Amino acid sequence: MNTFEIMLTIIAILIAILLISAASLKKDYTIKREVVINKPKQEVFNFIRLLRNHSKFNKWTMMDPNMRMEYIGIDGTAGFVSAWDSDVKNVGKGEQEIKKVMDGERIDYNLRFIKPFEGKAGAFMTTESISDRQTRVNWAINGERNFLLKIMYIIMSMEKKLGDDLQTGLKNLKVVLEKE
Length: 180
Known about the structure:
Layout: H1 3-24, E1 28-37, H2 41-48, H3 59-62, E2 68-72, E3 81-85, E4 93-102, E5 106-115, E6 119-131, E7 134-144, H4 147-155, H5 158-179
Antiparallel strand pairs: 1-7, 2-3, 3-4, 4-5, 5-6, 6-7
Helix pairs in contact: 1-4
């Protein structure tokens, strides 16, 4: 075997490993992070239930102070839509809709991405009382991956990147709420 054939064989093996790894990933995914905030549970929940407040802690919203926002409906209730449109590539265009609110406990969202790529995902935030003055907040994104998304998750470490972005948002939320 000459050097060229050896290199082609190695490349073929690496591609095969990538494809087999992608095929072995589950179709469904959930990326979840948490933070403890030194505030009572209902106070934390009342803040996060309003999508307009998310611009104060959400990493993606904070990446573009010139982002165009549109709000439809009554904030903090099922059916409320927060739409964004940004010229910043990593922010893009899309909308987030409150799907369900369990007062003091959980908010479920639908995410619809338009640019830089089309896609859908779910998200939720939960609050859990640790004590009278401490609340654990969980933030998660979930959805389904097609085969191409599975490959992207492996190559681009999307699970870690999205998880880090969620954690940054939660750290920002902690700072915002604990200042009040």
